[in-house]
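An instance follows:
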Amino acid sequence: MQKAIWKAPWCVLVSAACLLLPAASRLLAQAPPPLKEFSHAKHLTLGNVAPLIAGAIDTGTYLGKDGGKIRPFLNSGNPCQACHRALEESDAVSRANMPQMADCLVCHNQIDLPDSCEFCHPKGAQLKPVSHVPGFLDTHTNKKLGLDLESCAVCHGRKFTCLGCHLK
């Protein structure tokens, strides 16, 4: 069967690749970037940070897209559930139960690219989204890419504007 694939016309192979690339991109985009280190013990000394995350969502300073979805889970007195939400409703731990980068940015909120990234992530870690390919600056306004300004906020901050880059 492998030989049949290689004998297929070039346009069929390209079409198949084009169909598979968006799915692969979404899977790659879901992989969390590596962290230098993380200490649960150190963060638990802060107490329950759920009210801080909830406050950021309520005031519109939360940098994540899913604030409305996670907000109901932040009323727990369990400090672990501030970051590891919906554990009681889960049969198995999944990505949905893991903290989002926007959760971290509620407290670690000094965004100064690229220097602030290295506070938590190792130097050289692949942090750019898969959409930021060569030529991204020329194509990023294409509606087919499905980008939105809100998704840019996690890295670029809430006050990020298009003209912030385009006037440089």
